[in-house]
Amino acid sequence: MRKYIYNSRDVAAYFKYFSVPNYLEVSYMQYIYNLGNKVLAEPLTRDFEYFKKEVYRELYFLWANGFENEKADISKMTTEGEFTLICDQECICLESYMKLICLHLIFSSNLPYITLNFTGLMTQLGIKCDVSLYEENCKKVCDSLQLEVSDTFGKPFDLSLGIPDELLRVSLNGEFKQGLDTRNFKETLHSEQMNWLKDLKDKSFKLFGSIPARKKAPRRADNDKTRKTYRHPASVDPNTVQPKGMPKQGR
User: How do residues 107-120 score in pLDDT, each as one tens digit?
Assistant: First the structure.
């Protein structure tokens, strides 16, 4: 079985499906680009700027095609009439979904496995082929993506024996995982962000700390003639007030 290598649309679909923030997309791209042709197709590993441009192109395609997040229809990852590379044509959605799962395991190196119910997945992905064909394709796609399957107790499970209606553990096989970067990408990324924020904070303190404080104006003395005060008018009896120009009237 030929081992599958990822293309720019696979990476773009991962960003959409797992809602990777826009400001982290380039960091994710740099990480998988550094893994080289163990993971990425050969033309994409020659120049990072070219790879980045292709991923952004595919991001626009997915957005225009209605593939926006984990609630989107998996069939929107591909164009109508597109041929599969691993599975039979009837199981193209299985192929697309398992690529996302494998990429998530690659980006999350601290995640040992993901639990899946392959029987329920058939209904979830809207696959309507014969069950025996679906089971063959589950085995085929896991082998091509270099995934291994075990039961809930961690014992290896052979998909060629059939698919049980229960949760199975899906993980990267040992040989493939050893060839990847052993660093925890997300922890490294978080550490880099915190260092960047710390540097930004230090620069802000230095910038605003060098600006002299404004001097307060001296308080005026109480006997300052220029000081204006407001005095309330004295209370008066309205009967004693006469309009101007009118003589006083006697009783």
Answer: 988 889 999 999 99
